[in-house]
Please model this.
Amino acid sequence: MSESSSTRPARPGSPRLTRGGTLALCALPVVLLLVVAVFVPLPFSLTQPGETANVLGKHGGKPVISVEGAEGATGEVADKGRLLSVTIAATLPDAKVRLPDVVRAWFRDDRAVMPRDAVYPGGDTEDAERRIDKEMKDSQRAAVTAALRQVHRSPKDVHVKLRLGDVGGPSAGLFFALGIVDKLDGNGAGPGGLTGGRTVAGTGTIDAKGEVGAVGGVPLKMQAARRDGARYFLIPRSQCGEAGSLTPKGLRLVPVGTLKGALDALKEIRTGGEVPGC
Model:
């Protein structure tokens, strides 16, 4: 009887893999990938609630907003409340963010993981700093123009100086504009009084026509606002949906689409009227 073709004796001395050895060999690439993922920097930035700044107050011993050349204007704090511009803090563009950092941040409510290009579009630290600085200066110019138009003042007669340290980007535009209006007209009866003594925080870009635009990092900014005592948070109207479920307890979202809308909302807040909500 001939041997079956389906069986063949092993050649003497030939190596044979056990099942465990085969599994270990197959798992080796996965292990190597995990090791690489743990130690190789990833293209992410880690963010957290940043500082708040009262645009009606001082920064570094000097008023955040100074107004000169307009009758009744003042660089001093006449409003006893606070208008808090909020920020997020992010790792620098050249920071090495690795997988364990991402995993830890993922499970914390006060941290967020964002694509680095979304936080710093345009390249390395030097490029990012230039872009952020330009965005801040453009935002300040737009805020001044929008505020002066709102209160019918001429830029030829009014000089506005803004100081906010190393904060960059365009998201403080709305609150710069509100602070300028407060210095010039306040509640309509002279400088000061726009907040009615309350602490109001918020964020939003602004253009020269007074239109309010969306910004990034709203959930973390709301945490910074509530941490520093705000009860109301002015938010670009277009972002109500994304922020609503993440609002910290005790903080009320107030949607705004324009500088005038923000001023109307502040009037309702200080007079106990019908404050708009998301």
User: Anything to note?
Assistant: The radius of gyration is 28 Å. Confidence is low (pLDDT under 50) at residues 1-7.
